[in-house]
Target: AcrR family transcriptional regulator
Amino acid sequence: MGLYERRQREKESIRANILQAAFGLAKTEGWASLSMRKIADAIEYSAPVVYDYFENKEAILYEISLNGFHSLHIELLKAQRKFDTPEEQLIAIVDAYWNFAFKNKEYYQLMFGLGMQCSGKGQMKEEFSSFQDLIYECTYNIIKKNGSNPDNACHMSHALFSAVHGLISIMMMRNTDIPSTMNKTTLDETVSAFVKSL
Model:
């Protein structure tokens, strides 16, 4: 391996360590307490080294949120591919989204700015709208199959996204006084009623 390749590999390693340390700190202390100094201390480098790789904390949060959206996108596609009918696909996609949110709370909170400022404002990537795109596709296909007006697919799928995201947000922000089974039951009933309404 040449000198250039070695330096590139070292740079990639340090960059990965910064992201890993930031995520680890967020899991133990919360996103709000994250700072460039704490990240530098965690990887045993000086703060200027961290700034060599990321302009500021926001840039680190944005990069981590991209990892979250990418992981979510993969889970949603896996769920969709398990079923053939758009009704089954829609239910599976919503379930996968719900499960991702609660198995990856730190990612989800960062991705959607729950209890904090949303990272990457104005910097959209394809994966950001993955869930909305997939439920739109299923909604459109169900509507078309039922002979209803396909012009309603955009509005209807947006309403479903809002309901699902709203339930997750309530659950995450008020988890002490709302039973998880109640929210999941509400989610299942909402999706079932949604499919019937199409």
Remarks:
- The mean pLDDT is 88.
- Residues 2 and 8 are 10 Å apart (CA to CA).
- DSSP finds nine helices and no strands in the chain.
